[in-house]
Amino acid sequence: MKxxxxxxxxxxxxxxxxxxxxxxxxxxxVYDGENGENRxxxxxxxxxxxxxxxxxxxxITVCNNLRNKNINVPIIILTAKDELDDKIMGLxxxxxxxxxxxxxxxxxxxxxxxxxxxxxxKVGEILMVxxxxxxxxxxxxxxxxxxxxxxxxxxxxxxxxxxxxGQVITRDQILEHCWDFSFDSFSNIVDGFIKQLRKKLxxxxxxxxxxxxxxxxxxxx
Length: 221
Fold this sequence. Notes:
single chain; Rossmann fold; Arc Repressor Mutant, subunit A; five-stranded parallel β-sheet; four-stranded antiparallel β-sheet
């Protein structure tokens, strides 16, 4: 799953990014509201962490603009404003949740998990295809009830393919969803990770991950 952090405090943004990546999320960071809105509008994210007080465009304006553009990704507002009226303003302008600074990291992670559980049809806690099970709550993937040892990036790629089982996913889509936006899109690193995943799944005959020549990959239903 891919998360966008829009926070002008780069130290805080980096701290949150590191913690999320350790939980196998893919994370992009931007440091002003204008850039944040553009990123959210033209890229696919599963959740946005949005600071209220931002350069160029404040978080409330960004949130409201995204909702007016029918971008319904879950949004958590971060702010030092703790008055009831401020919280109401944030929620009324399209935020799904509101967290007052300073906050405990574990609370932020719990709120993220809660929001990502909401759209069950898209991001369920348990995904099952063939004999492969993805447990998003525990961040483990099993085959025939035996846990597969995966790196964070391998987990992210396999989870993304399984979420979109039966659909052809391009290499660019995998790069966009599982790497941050600074990554070199001309790299063939996706193919290398698919090779590793096939080895760990013992997928010699493409029973699970099928290559669609010239396009990308499909997880077989």
